[in-house]
Amino acid sequence: MLLPLFLASLVACLALATWALVFVVRDRAVILRQLFGAAVVEGIMLVQAVVAAVLAVTRGHALDGPLFWGYTVTALVLLPIAAAWAFAERSKWSSVVLMVAALTVGFLSFRLWQIWGAA
């Protein structure tokens, strides 16, 4: 994993969570632009996963594979599920779902960085 990708994912997750929190406070549902923001976060996480896979194979990075890839798959699956749920739920709770998912993906990204550094 690369530090710039880790930082980009963390900042993007926090920005998306903050944006969703503003909508929660205003009692508003998720809008399409927020789902595009979730897609940007998902893209960063996907690039991060590909880079990690390449680095693990080419540099022979010894890490706890099931733990690392379990976190990676969870981080990649969580936002699309939350986005679909938020799109279907047309109340302020859609913003809560998106906020919680963005915070969770940010935490998972942080844990991935820790696991990568421990190897």
Describe the structure.
The protein has 119 residues and is mainly α. The chain has one domain (3-118). 85% of the residues lie in helices and 0% in strands. The chain is built from 4 helices and no strands. The protein has helices spanning 3-25, 32-58, 65-88, 92-118. Helix 2 runs antiparallel to helix 3. The model has no long low-confidence stretch (mean pLDDT 92).
Helix tally?
Answer: 4
State mean pLDDT (0 to 100 scale).
Answer: 92
What is the C-alpha radius of gyration, as a whole number of Å? Answer: 15 Å
Principal-axes shape call: elongated
Beta-strand residue fraction: under 5%
Total individual domains: 1
Secondary structure: helix percent: over 70%
Low-confidence stretches: none
Task: Give the CA-CA distance, first to last residue.
Answer: 11 Å
- Helix/strand class: mainly alpha
SSE order in H/E notation? HHHH
Kindly state the number of beta strands: 0
User: Biggest sheet, in brief?
Assistant: none
How are the elements arranged and paired?
Blueprint: H1 3-25, H2 32-58, H3 65-88, H4 92-118
Helix pairs in contact: 1-2, 1-4, 2-3, 3-4
